[in-house]
Amino acid sequence: MSNDAKYELLYWPGIPGRGEFVRLAFEATGTPYLDVSNQVEGGIHQILALKDEKASHDADGNPPALAPPALRIHGEGKNGKSLLLSQTPAILAFLGEKLELAGADATEKAWIQALALTALDLNNETHDTHHPVSTLAYYEDQKPEALRRATDFRETRIPKFLGYFERVLKGNKEGQGKYLVGDKLSYADLTLWQVVHGLKFAFPNELKAREEAGEFPTVFKTFFASVPEHGQLKEYLESDRRKPYSKGIFRHYPELDRQ
Ligand SMILES: N[C@@H](CCC(=O)N[C@@H](CS)C(=O)NCC(=O)O)C(=O)O
């Protein structure tokens, strides 16, 4: 990682969060990037500036971001300025193209985008288990609703999504259970992997019970083991650059897990 990196990730410090999908794309391809809030002194101010609700554009003419993550890409904006891109799936689609994580042709590209969006739906639904009423309110102020939402999520949504990805992995013969599309790692694989990893943290009983019952064997075994084998991912996952889960999207509240 260098201070003159072409790519600057703007995201909250200290948590994986939605920034993690972007970090994984960089780490899987060995691409230098600057993780501004974690690596630059005072970098948090750049994240807070992103959320300035009075801003209509930045110094390079980009529309503002509604919320992090955002990616600043030097030299890719209008007239050689910086491009500021927000929305996780838009960032991933842009980077996927640049880092060769987006598929071999236009058809694969379209499939990968749809599959990544589906994995991000699962990510967003995970967030809503602890914040079903209001994103701004504390979990402690929405506990009964969270329990109802999490119960439904565990019982109906997790099997629906993981069953879907199991079918996709099995249906892609070329991928041998390792890739959702074709025979090469894509940002859809990285996105799904991160969501499954996060779910294992948030709902350990639920995920363990399903794995031990032999459900979704391709997702839990072949796919889950294979993704970290790419690029610098293994090294990254063991490093202190990989932040621990805490009060982000993937939270472990034992009362919301399978009892
Ligand atoms: N759909 C957006 C959601 C962005 C989002 O919700 N970001 C969170 C952090 S992961 C945030 O800081 N939200 C603050 C807000 O919405 O005011 C994306 O995928 O990037």
From TrEMBL:
GO biological process, one term: glutathione metabolic process
PROSITE patterns membership: GST_CTER (PS50405), GST_NTER (PS50404)
Annotated ranges, domain GST N-terminal: 6-103
Domain GST C-terminal: residue ranges: 105-246
Pfam families listed in its UniProt record: GST_C_3
Single Gene Ontology MF annotation: glutathione transferase activity
Top-level division of the source organism's lineage: Eukaryota
Protein name: Glutathione S-transferase protein-like protein
Natural source organism: Karstenula rhodostoma CBS 690.94
